[in-house]
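Hey team,

Filing this mostly as a record. A colleague (T.K.) asked me to run one chain through the structure pipeline before their review meeting, and I want the input and output archived in the tracker in case anyone asks later how it was produced. No errors, nothing strange. Just documentation.

Input sequence:
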Amino acid sequence: MAHVNNINLGLDLQGGFEVLYEVEPIDSESEINRELLSDTVSALNARIDVLGVSEPNISIEGDNRIRVQLAGVTDQETARELLSTEARLSFRDVDDEVKMDGGDLVEGGARQSFHPDTNQPIVTVTVADASLFEDITREISNRPMGENILAIWLDYEEGDTYEEEIMKEDSKIVSAPRVSHVIPSRDVMIEGDFTSEEAADLAGILNAGALPVELTEIQADSVGASLGERSMEMAINAGIVGIALIFAYMLVYYRFMGFISLLTLTGYIYLVLVVFDWMNAVLTLPGIAALILGVGMAVDANIITFERIKDELRSGKSTMSAFRAGSRRSLSTILDANITTILAAAVLFYFGTSAVQGFAVMLIVSILASFITSVFGARLLLGLWVNSRILNKRPRMFGVKEREISEL
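Output structure:
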């Protein structure tokens, strides 16, 4: 049970948020390549750490798209703003002339703090060169009243102006302090109408660094927590019913061998969950489907082996001889079926998107686990009983009637 509780649930099982971005270069000189996409994914991962999402799923799709899946996120608007903000920080005067930008700051030096006088939440950043900020504040402080302002912009774009932007409710100017004297310090306070959470988010964005590209949202989907919980409950119930029917069929039709199959299938399910927990993978609805499909593959391997053994018993061979011949003859068929399915799953993983890749990974794990339990595990258990000679001259224990043997 511990392994089940440790498995991380995907977006469709616990609810959350998914968005697909189209990646565009910031300027005409840049071009989108794999390296730039990887850098963007790294920057997005750093930002998601601010949200506290334990298992985000960020994947590159095609030549210029990135899909972000955040399971368990409830505040979608905050997540969107955090992800899409380019975080290009710049310090400008009222004439929109840049005085300092993010490149002049110490990397990772942004932090959320409180104003020493008002106790309001602020963000402090550290300037790499103290003399640079001293020169800037000296020049700004000598300007007349109304012009002695050092505006702090986030994502300034060509054509933006201080006069227009400062009047907007959702302004790109996060702070516009008056500079009345020279500041010989490396620490710069960014003030605004921040809550503690907003200040912490801004500090996290600045520490994560500016995105090297522009992100255009082209698709967004959300799954409510209750919907995800209901989907998981339905999937688990369907799986339990399906597996129970398989167990019943194997017991009725294959008798003792069906009981061996029941034990190995139970071991298969446990082994898959252990491996998935070890991989720290995220379980999704397609993953549950692959797990149940793997049960079918495991049963198929057992049925092939058991039918070969029954054929050998019908031909008049002893229990020991039938077991050995049936196991040997079934191995190549089982190998062929498993290898071709693994190849198909590998193709799905290589060419598929996130959901398809999750299904492919779970399918590969399921096939390997089923091969270990249903081939080696079932043969080991059945072989122990056969070697004990308890099953000698008891064909009915294998689902074979005496009259079927006498007819051959």
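Quick notes for T.K.: The chain has a mean pLDDT of 78. The chain has twelve helices and 13 strands.
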